[in-house]
Structure formats: C-alpha cells, structure tokens
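The record is kept unedited without comment:

——
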Amino acid sequence: MSAEPLRVEILDRLDENDRRAWDQLAAPKSFYAGTRWLEFQREQEQGGRVHHVCVRSGDRLVGAVAVFVVDRPSSGNYHPGKLFPDAADQGDRPVTLVGSSRGFYSGPLLSDDRALEPLLDAVQDIADTHSDGLAWWLYATSADAALLARRSGVTPRLLNGECVIPLPGSGFEDYLEGLISSRRKRIRRDLREFESAGLRLSRARLSDEYQRCGALLAATQQKYGVQASADAMTLWLEQLSRAARDTGRLHLCMNAEEQPIGFSLIFIEGQTTYTRAIGFDYERAPHVGEYFQLSCYQPIRDAYADGATALHLGAGAYQAKARRGAVVHPMWAVPTRPGAWDATATKAYNTGQAEALRAELPGEDLEWTHDSEGWL
C-alpha cells in the first residue's frame, strides 16, 4: 500500500485533537516543544503571532512546528541582533523565530521523514512574508542543527549547552552507582547536610502556591543578574500554571517554622523530567544543600517513580550540574538564509564558544555528535 499524500495546514490555534497529536510528536523531543509550553509562550509574546505549521498524512499529524513572528523578541536570549551583531541586518522587519521564543529548544517535530521538506517549505513561506526570507532556529540540538544546516547551506553557531542527567536502573541508588566515587561522595554529603538541618520537602500544586513562590523566584533571578520583581515573577508563575493546565509538580522546602525557603517546579514530557523553575529565600535558607535537593535529588526520585530515564536541568552552571552527573549537549543557531552570516567568522565564533564550555567541564561531560565538532 502506498503512503498517503502529505498536506500542509497553518493554524492560528490547535483544537484538542491536534494538541494531543502535537504532544505525541513532542514527547520524545522536549517539554519545550509541547503545547503546554507553547501556550505559555503565546502569553509572553502578546505583540506577535504564532503560526502552527502542521503536516498531515491523511488525518494523522506527522510533522509540526510553531513559528513566532514578533516585532521584538521578549527575551534577549532569542534576539538575533543581540546574539549575533554581525548577522544580516533585518532593519525594522519583524523577527521570525522557529520552534520557540523562549525555553532554549527548537527543532522540527516529525514522525514521518517525508514531512521535513514540506514543513521547512512552509516555514520559509512565513519568513518570506514577514522577515525578508530570514527565520531563526535557536537552540537546536546537534542532530536537528545538522538536518537544518543541510537545507539552509550555513554553518550553525554554538549558543550554549543543555544539561541532562541520565538515570540508569530503577532508583536513586542506581543513579548514585552510575557516578564516579568523588561525585557520589559529594552528593551523599549534600544529602546528610540537608537531613541534619531540620528542613522538609512538601508537594503542592502551583495554582495554590504561585503567590508564595513568586518572591522566591524573583530573589533567585536577581541573584543571577536578572531584574525581576516579586510581582512580575508571581504573574509569570500564574501564567505558566494556567498555560500548562496546572500539570507542573511543585516541591516546597519548609524550615522548622513551616516557612517556605525554597521551591522547585518540574514537568514530565515523554521519558524525561524537566526542572523548569527554582527559587529561594536566601536570608532564611541555611545553605545546606537545599539547592540541589530541590533542583536535582528530589526530581531524580520523582523521575524514577514516574518511569522517566533522564532529568533535564537546562543551560548554565555547567560544572555544578556535571558534578551531579549531567552530560552537556551543545545547542546551536541555524538561520534559514545562506547569507545570514560569514562562514569564516562563524568558525572563529564557534571555537571561542566551545573553549568557554570546555573550560567549565571535564572532556567526558561535553558530548559532540553528528559531526558538530567540524563546525568549530
């Protein structure tokens, strides 16, 4: 029997059937490709428009990607002009972002390889209409970057790395046994310090606790140089709870006075658990390992209980995350237009970015695949 022909639709909104089908495609890729995060991004990009590119074979969704057309990206991490000052100047034209506008992930969602070309053709049509033919895939994996670069004829640029802890076996002790001795000792010390401090963890719903967590999230953002008020972060958490249909799992760290001194928010997508947000009251926190208890150790226990095989910790703090078992996967930028940047300058740029990553990590913790080292 011959395969059914493909057809492309571009939708402003997804109905419930399309949401389920979209999430089935996203599950093996990333939480940041699924509809919960997609709805949250829509709230953040109020001045833009979201195009849902859908490739169907008969009634089945076999290819998908979201395309954001914005006058100005709301996140500096997604502003091509700030990321790459030497890239092609788009003037006052809108910016077209493919896959996401925040979250550090972008890639085509496919269950049928035939869907790739019509999917990319549709993306290019949107870019031609709004952005002088230039769209941006930002924070693509090495596998997706290689696929996209062949189409656009450019060398990808290295942006950052995503940190993922593989979870072998069936429980927390299996995770520990998979680490080298020095890392096991460090984690056991973290656990002892936390247990002796009289702290406890409790589970809650984000919809019930976002107001208390907003100030904690703002404090952590400010600690790392992000200007964020408690009110703004409370709204951010409320919007995320609503967009994600309150599916996040919230852990609160309580002190002896039953005051929350920290929280973490995790989501599950496919076989991976994602630590999405974390916040602390640094004046009350005793600093006895509660950061990694909330960001790593409890999410790892949850992941095993849920049958997940990996914990995703996002970008940054590479050395600390590697010491807890994370492998760092490079993430790339791929423009859709061949002349977006100079190939020689890109090689130099990538070499500098790679050297910065390597300076934070032992060699075995940085994983190059799909000939991506050839882009350096």
Notes: The first helix runs from residue 16 to 26.
